[in-house]
Amino acid sequence: MEQPDLFPDTASSLAGSVDDIYFVWLALSGVVALVIAVLVVVFTIKYRSSSNASRAVAAEAIHEQAMHKIEIAWTLIPLIIFLAMFFWSTYAYYQGVTVPSDARPIYVVGKQWMWHVEHQSGQREINELHVPLGQPIELVMTSQDVIHSFSIPGFRVKQDVLPGRYTTLWFQATHTGDFRWFCTQYCGAAHSRMIGRVIVMDSGDFNHWLAASDTTGSMAAKGAARFRQFGCSGCHGANANVRAPRLEGLFGKSVRLRDGRTVIVDERFIRDSDFLPNKDVPADYDPIMPSFRGQIDEQQMLEIIEYVKSIEGVPQGAAQ
Predict the structure, then answer these.
(1) What is the pLDDT of residue 157?
(2) Are 111 and 143 in contact (CB under 8 A)?
(3) Which of 1, 39, 185, 213 qualifies as a cystine partner to 123, CB 3.0-4.6 A?
(4) How much is the average pLDDT of 227-246?
């Protein structure tokens, strides 16, 4: 019978720094715990009730100047160590949350009890994720129902997946192979079934997999069809009679709102505009947008977002 590994694979560009910090903290904690344990044992034996050892205050036997040096030492040394660990951990944290500009976006929807994955080119997967070796991957994630959490131990990455919000997670695989992922947030009776695997492939094999996978079109193409299906083009299309913000080139730009705030048009803004249209109304426009909550599911919403991202040109109206 194959024995389980004592420690997960180290299979991403982030994993090494996470492991280094973990083992240094483990060593520091172990040294402190060992010193305290030894002192407890020594003092327990030396000052037991039957011992004749003097119980006078030890400081009385130490010169005042020497005592000050000891106090400064036991204050400054731990402070320096913990500040160094703090800045090291902060640097590693920002590495983990700063998505590289060349990352490949892949969209993930968690639902009871499965993971739905969709690539920009339209390939869909259930509880599996094929990625190329050595390329940064950005997962844009949301939940259809309750709070989930997406964790890949071999890559040392984990991110909560929340209903009504988009969260991101990125990694760059450094080894080919299969790596398990888990839901680490209890999400219901079949929580243990919320598992899957990341399949890391050489670039050539990944391109072959993309070409061989069945698809009915890219996410942007599917989003364009949804855009027409739900009547969005009637207001936001180039020939629309209704005065509504144009969407060409709008994604990533700043928009001034009726309440004076300025926000960036991102995935959250587009989703809220469809599901909570009165939340962030662009300046100079009336709040006449209907809500599509209950009509568009999270998977369809991601396709519409990908379509909006793909629209090029100079926006008219809301973008400032």
Answers:
(1) 95
(2) yes
(3) 213
(4) 79
The whole model's pTM is what?
A: 0.82
Strand 128-132 and strand 254-256: the pairing is: unpaired
Provide the edge-to-edge strand list for the sheet that holds 137-143. Answer: 124-126, 114-119, 104-111, 137-143, 167-171
How many domains is the chain partitioned into structurally? 3
Same domain, 21 and 117: no
Q: Are residues 279 and 229 in the same domain?
A: yes
Say which range, 30-39, 55-64, 77-86, 104-113, has the weakest mean pLDDT. Answer: 55-64
In three-state secondary structure terms, 298 is helix
**Are 201 and 132 contacting, i.e. CB atoms less than 8 angstroms apart?**
yes
Helix (H) or strand (E) holding 106: strand 104-111
Measure Cα distances from 258 to 163, 188, 250, 280, 312 in Å: 27, 41, 17, 8, 25
Same domain, 117 and 200: yes
User: Which band of pLDDT confidence, cut at 50, 70 and 90, is reported for residue 314?
Assistant: very low
